[in-house]
Amino acid sequence: MSNLSLRGLSKTYAGQIHAVQGLDLEVAQGEFLSLLGPSGCGKTTTLQMVAGFIPPTEGSVVVEGRDMTRVAPEKRDMGVVFQSYALFPHMSVAQNVGFGLEMRKVKKSELQDRIDEALSMVRLSGLEDRYPRELSGGQRQRVAIARALAIRPKVLLLDEPMSNLDAKLRSEMHVELRALQRRLGITAILVTHDQVEAMTMSDRIAVMSNGCIAQLGSPIEVYDKPASEFALRFLGHANIIAGGISSRDGRNAVIHVGSIEFTADIGGHSDGADVKLFIRPERLRICSADKGVAKGRVVASLFLGGFWIFEIESEIGKLRATLQNLGTVQPCEGDEVGITWNAADLRVVAHETANA
Questions:
Q1: Mean pLDDT per 10-residue run, the chain (356 residues)?
Q2: Of 204, 234, 264, the domain-final residue
Q3: Cβ–Cβ < 8 Å for 150, 115
Q4: What CATH number does the domain containing 312 carry?
Q5: In what order do the strands lie in the sheet with 274-279?
Q6: What domain range includes position 105?
Q7: Handedness of CA 161, 167, 168, 174 (dihedral sign)
Q8: How many domains is the chain built from?
Q9: What gap in Å lies between CA 3 and CA 5, rounded to an integer?
């Protein structure tokens, strides 16, 4: 069942700047959806139109079958968590959490119970009398989330709420917020430019570019089967290999890059055509130079604790390989190596958007 519908949603400034263009999107009850993309792609403008902070030029926002397009923000039953948290510094934790409830004229007999309930959800019980300046970054974020949840919203809107946290705390909050959202069964929309955040937390990801959705799907779908080169490059690193088709047998073809030949599933491309293929760094394997599909030389190696990243100058172009740290000896900078992969992990870059 659709909880939130965006129908032909558009925002144009000065009659010619198209921030969002004809967006159609259905978000199910209890779904966690991320709007992912670079600055200027329209994701924040979309969220602000959903929240009611800016009016759309065209289209509508429908929640549970009711058109909310012209409804004031405070009457939309939506909780919003901002990037800056937007806590009132002169108010205590309890006062911050209860602010939205007071604006909605919740009875005093119920007010404290709702505040206590919201703080319990985010594990801040006992901190009611503290002020924002007395809290850590993670605690301030939890207060902002508690304030949004206290009004029992139909939709929770998250505008890059974890961008001010350090990497370790941000990772912990990904897990905590996702678990909380699942437990409450609340519909949530997250705006982020952080691919790890989107992939960690989302049921589906809408990759946005130029005010449009470039791809919509589960984290696995958008990562493993990107619909365009834009989506491919934005969702993690990808090795792009440009070659030509020597011959084919059904969907499989022999690809040549200089003197190197290998097999790939190339779909409907014809013999003799040029083709772009991609493979993710974690799908490459490093072996001895005489056993690989192609030879190369390690020009950089980075150790990141749980895994290694290798930059390799090879016969088929510059490649990046990511290998899990299993405690084994790894090649050093300057070493000659072989590169190989499973044929199924090599995919064609979507032809119609190869230059996106």
A1: 88 89 95 95 96 96 95 91 87 93 85 91 90 90 90 92 82 87 93 92 95 95 89 88 82 86 75 82 95 95 95 96 92 96 87 41
A2: 234
A3: yes
A4: 2.40.50.140
A5: 260-265, 252-257, 239-249, 274-279, 347-348
A6: 2-234
A7: positive
A8: 2
A9: 7
